[in-house]
Design brief:
Number of domains: 2
Radius of gyration: 20 Å
Order of helices and strands: HHHHHHHHH
Oligomer: single chain
CATH class of the largest domain: Mainly Alpha
Length: 202
């Protein structure tokens, strides 16, 4: 068992996050326990609570890492396409790929519940909202004449639809809805939504 003096608080924090991320990625949220994390890094459970408020706090920090990786992937996707309509379609596909490649970590973003039922911290809410920004920027390119008050709700409504398709795919219920391809479903949603939005926004 390591001693706290073997590593700095920040080193212990990063080691714990690495171990927690690995646990969730391989086994899902239910395997995330303080005892497993502490055992994985060679420290006591008490040492974890010197660098995290509780297990919920640690889980939020893992989610923040996942959200950062998601935002990076979406930004990289957006950089490959100049035409905003095509870009939005490809962003939908990129989001679906991320969920498929990181199923347990993606799921935990939406499974998180704080023990005291308080609002999620502002820094975390900002991370979540950042995942919408790439889509919002493409909507802005399509209609630079429109105010933000019309851009944001439209972008977030579309992204919520893509997310819904993702959930159906990840839970094996897409076939029940009569849809064979998750990417095709996302493409159709994006294309038809944009047709309707452009028409109604004129």
């Amino acid at each position: 068992m390591a001693r706290r003096s073997d590593h700095s608080r920040e080193e212990i924090r990063q080691m714990a996050l690495d171990a927690a991320e690995k646990l969730v990625a391989e086994n899902g949220r239910s395997f995330l326990t303080a005892r497993r994390i502490a055992s994985g890094i060679g420290y006591t459970v008490g040492s974890l609570y010197l660098v995290f408020d509780n297990l919920d706090d640690l889980a939020l920090q893992v989610n923040a890492r996942t959200l950062d990786r998601l935002s990076l992937q979406l930004d990289q996707t957006a950089s490959q396409y100049q035409e905003p309509r095509r870009c939005i379609v490809e962003l939908g596909r990129s989001y679906i790929r991320f969920a498929a490649d990181n199923p347990h970590l993606w799921n935990m973003i939406f499974e998180i519940r704080t023990a005291d039922e308080m609002r999620l911290p502002e820094w975390y809410q900002r991370r979540v909202l950042e995942s919408f920004r790439g889509v919002e920027r493409q909507f802005e390119k399509m209609r630079p004449d429109l105010p933000e008050a019309l851009i944001k709700p439209a972008a977030r409504a579309l992204w919520s639809g893509v997310h819904g398709i993702c959930i159906l795919a990840r839970t094996g219920k897409l076939d029940v809805a009569g849809i064979e391809s998750v990417e095709r479903a996302s493409d159709l949603l994006c294309e038809n939504f944009l047709d309707g939005w452009i028409g109604s926004a004129r």
